[in-house]
Amino acid sequence: MSGSGLRGEPLNYDAVIVGGGISGATCALVLSHFGWRVAVVEREAHITPLLRGFSRHGVHHDTGFHYAGGLGKGEVLDRFLGFLGLSRKIELYPFKRQGFDRIIDRSTSDVIDFSYAEQDWRDSLLAAFPHEATAIDRFQQTVLSICDSMPYLNTKKTFGEEGLFAHSQDVSLQSFVAELTQDHRLRAALCLHCLLHGTPPDQIPLRLHAAVVGPYCRSVHGVRGGGSQLSQAFDDCLQQAGVDSFCSSTVTAMSVGREGEIAGVLLASGQKLVAKQVIHAADPRLLLDWLDERCFRPVYRRRLAALQETQSALVLFGRSAQPVDALAGRNLYLADLQQGTQLFSGTIAQRPLYLSSAGQGCGIIGIMPEDYSRFEPWQNTRRGQRPDDYRHVKQQYCEQIMERIDQTVPEISQALQSPFLATPLTLRDYLHYPQGAVYGVSHQLAHYPLQVATRVRGLYLSGQALAAPGLMGAMVGAFYTCGTLLGHQRVAEELNQCH
Ligand SMILES: Cc1cc2nc3c(=O)[nH]c(=O)nc-3n(C[C@H](O)[C@H](O)[C@H](O)COP(=O)(O)OP(=O)(O)OC[C@H]3O[C@@H](n4cnc5c(N)ncnc54)[C@H](O)[C@@H]3O)c2cc1C
């Protein structure tokens, strides 16, 4: 903890930020840039725990960051990282332009490449679906025009007051691709990147999907050293900015003044942090427990309570002695495109498996959608103390995933040393979303998008629940929240001065 203060003696800040993920840490850096005295509260032992990864048997494994769009020179994330001071502390590297993401289709053994730079994106998909030029062009044009219409994704637009990515009058990705083509395999390929936000194609608003995947049409980068390097850069910048980080500290309540204005937060230790502005950058549903029910209108409470989580996952971790060629500068998606757009259901042999060794070279991660409900029988067990039948199921799943890799890319299965699996229960305990969500709460067509300001004066929302998941979504959300507090124009002018 870098913040201090005697237990029970309130500490005063201009703003307290709840949750020290990418969103919370970004909010803290932006506000401190404008001279605010800021504290961040994070329940884990370090800031940005999801980026930091973990060590097992002395070996480090990366978790929450492998690649991103929008990091090319002058693109939106590049500008954000420059402004925050993170660019100076990390080294970016480009993914392979041709086939940064490569699908290997189990049903046909075809290889389908997603490439970046607009023409290459189109041409590589067209090589796999030569009769589908119209559908491919329409998909790309629609996705890019949606991105370009959003002030936060288009650096030439005014960083303004318009809404964020989600839109109440939208269509689902699934109905959009169903209109484009009759080819089930192409439909599946165009929906596969739902793995990057964890909401199925029939529920994700097209605009949200476009905002997440569109930037990958233009450039794709990783960070040398992976998420842990980015995490270290956040630590350094927060320290230099004089932000007080309360780590291993859990917020348990918020206090509200007589006029209904926010007054601060209470930590599990009993410590009070006083502030006229509080930014909530963790699961928005937590507010239901932390505030008196009169603080929000019943309809808003119902809306928060109805938020559903994104898909959970099985996550395979392992290391290779040498970097594996098949994963050099690209990720693989082992998929069964005959399954169509039912990406999150089916057997282990049918569900898509994302494989990456981005960032660290020898660390390999595999992510496959998985329902939390399959692990409900063990939901009351604790990490490190789970029973034999759970461990048996986990081992079986690990072997089945390894077999799947072995059938398609034996180079990877042979190189993988001591692979092990994280289940939805592991994710639940690690990420603090009750159903083990990979990307927090889901942005669904059926839900009205969350807004930054709440009815409690001085209490604002940020986080992946506000804009979108991913480094991009988390940072856009953070800048948007800070723009609401500071004035969007003021933030935009400072951002522009960095370039
Ligand atoms: C396996 C995996 C791989 C991923 N790969 C990529 C990738 O390649 N590229 C990409 O762009 N994105 C990727 N992501 C997504 C990206 O990491 C997330 O979208 C992003 O980190 C979310 O940041 P956030 O700050 O909004 O949310 P979170 O990281 O969830 O931050 C919320 C924070 O609040 C803390 N918290 C919760 N409750 C409390 C409380 N009561 N008191 C105090 N603190 C609390 C939590 O510990 C957490 O640190 C990946 C995610 C996962 C899980």
UniProtKB/TrEMBL annotation:
Q: Which domain of life is it from?
A: Bacteria
Q: Which Pfam families match?
A: NAD_binding_8
Q: Which Gene3D superfamilies match?
A: FAD/NAD(P)-binding domain (3.50.50.60)
- Please provide the record's keywords in A-Z order: FAD, Flavoprotein, NAD, NADP, Signal
Please tell me whether the keyword Signal is annotated for this protein. Answer: yes
This protein's record includes keyword Secreted: no
Query: In its UniProt entry, what is this protein called?
Result: FAD dependent oxidoreductase
